[in-house]
Design brief:
The complex is a heterodimer of chains A (228) and B (217). Chain A has 228 residues and is mainly α. Chain A contains 10 helices and no strands. The two termini of chain A are 37 Å apart. In chain B, α4 crosses α5. The chains are: A mainly alpha (228), B mainly alpha (217).
Chain lengths: 228, 217
């Protein structure tokens, strides 16, 4: 049995269940879920971080969210609400909110107190302090939150194939059903590749943000690429 | 959402068994990972540039989705996909990736002045590490331990899709037969187990590191 047979077979790359289409579906799920989550979590995180209120609640939320098995939440939602892309995207977005929210809040509230004090002393308004000081300083953590959320969504979107969703997880689910290990392996390799590319791209973005936030102290590049 | 309590009573024995299995499957990798991460984290700190490379490699490994790792691991380990060893190894890998960072961060957080004082007080390098630096790094290490324990418990379930996933089997079976009760039982017990483990670790930290109790801003 040729293990990479499925992945390297040209027939796997064309047609309706083909790899490019599944990849696009996977990217579609990921992009829409992360954007939806960010639209909610970034403003909420800024509010919490800037006012310093409800930060305990946010910490508890992050532990609580980590405790939820994504498989269970996904299957429960599909069973109660029905299959369909919209339902899957909403579940993925729900799982992506906590990592973004906690890190945006931590980034904004953790901005250098002296910098914030200096900005106020210069006569900046509250909004100016937020947009010109706290937000740029928070950006590396914001990107790190987006990276965690993206990886979480890429992984859970794979699981969604077992709840009649699309995406690259289809290869794993179908391969298992057909007792076709090379097809499963093709799915695993492609999903892993997608996740690693996303990780490296967002880590590079985080490194760039960190260098912009603190140009004097050159942050070690490796720290930006460490496990989140 | 109506639960079938008769099913619950009839299957209590099996549910208990899966709960125990779930706990073992999630916690044993954490213990294994601590043993690996302590020396590796120390090495990352001491090795300078090579240490940064180790961290970056761990970052890449950590980003691989669990389902992909579970499908690919039998090839590397020579196991069968149903083997519990796959799940244990996958979870150990993720735990090591996170804990190495915690160990390195924790040791890095020990102030230079403290290290120098310890040396001046006559601590040799090894005794200083064991008696001064590691205890001071423990709060950061405990934070990492809580993260990996909670995520491991949540992650075990995914393994039910391609192998043996303890409580995940209830979730998967419930979905496949469109029977809500096992799905909800698996989900709720998994969350409860994770929160319980988190609370136990927090108590353990307060008990063993009394000086961290006061540090609450």
């Amino acid at each position: 049995m040729n293990l990479l047979g499925y992945l390297l077979n040209p027939a796997s790359w064309s047609g309706s269940g083909a790899i490019p289409r599944l990849l696009l579906q996977h990217l579609g799920y990921t992009a829409s879920a992360v954007l939806l989550a960010a639209a909610i979590a970034v403003p909420a995180g800024i509010l919490v971080g800037h006012t310093g209120q409800r930060s305990r609640l946010v910490t508890a939320l992050s532990t609580g969210a980590r405790a939820i098995p994504s498989l269970g939440l996904l299957f429960l939602a599909v069973m109660l609400l029905g299959t369909g892309t919209a339902n899957i995207v909403v579940v993925l977005a729900v799982l992506a909110v906590p990592p973004i929210l906690t890190r945006v809040a931590a980034g904004v509230s953790g901005a250098d107190r002296e910098a914030v004090g200096a900005a106020r002393a210069m006569g900046m308004t509250d909004l100016q302090v937020l947009t010109k000081v706290q937000w740029p300083l928070a950006l590396p953590l914001v990107v790190s939150g987006l990276r965690s959320a993206t990886l979480q969504v890429v992984a859970t979107a794979t699981v969604a194939a077992f709840a009649s969703g699309g995406g690259l997880g289809r290869l794993i689910a179908d391969g298992q059903q057909q007792d076709d290990y090379p097809q499963m392996l093709a799915g695993a390799v492609l999903v892993a590749g997608l996740a690693v590319v996303a990780h490296l791209a967002l880590s590079a973005l985080g490194w760039w943000a960190a260098r912009r936030a603190r140009p004097r102290s050159t942050p070690a590049a490796a720290l930006a690429f460490a496990p989140a | 959402m109506n639960l079938d309590w008769d099913w619950l009573r009839g299957n209590a024995g099996e549910i208990g068994l899966l709960l125990g299995q779930h706990a073992v499957l999630a916690v044993v990798p954490v213990l294994a990972a601590v043993l690996i991460a302590l020396p590796l984290g120390l090495a990352v700190l001491r090795a300078g540039r090579a240490g940064s490379v180790i961290l970056a490699v761990l970052g890449v490994v950590h980003s691989i989705p669990a389902l992909a790792l579970l499908v690919a691991l039998p090839l590397l380990l020579g196991t069968r996909m149903l083997d519990r060893l796959n799940v244990a190894v996958a979870l150990t890998v993720y735990s090591v990736a996170v804990l190495v960072c915690s160990v390195a961060d924790g040791l890095r957080s020990v102030p230079e002045s403290v290290r120098e004082s310890a040396s001046a007080a006559g601590f040799g390098p090894f005794r200083r590490l064991l008696r001064v630096e590691v205890p001071l790094a423990m709060p950061v290490l405990f934070a990492g331990l809580r993260v990996v324990t909670v995520s491991n418990i949540a992650l075990v379930s995914v393994a039910a899709l391609v192998g043996s996933g303890a409580l995940g089997q209830l979730i998967e079976r419930g979905y496949r037969s469109q029977f809500l009760t096992p799905l909800v039982v698996g989900l709720v017990l998994s969350v409860a187990l994770a929160l319980l483990a988190d609370a136990v670790l927090l108590l353990l930290q307060r008990g063993t590191l009394p000086w961290t109790r006061a540090r609450r801003a």
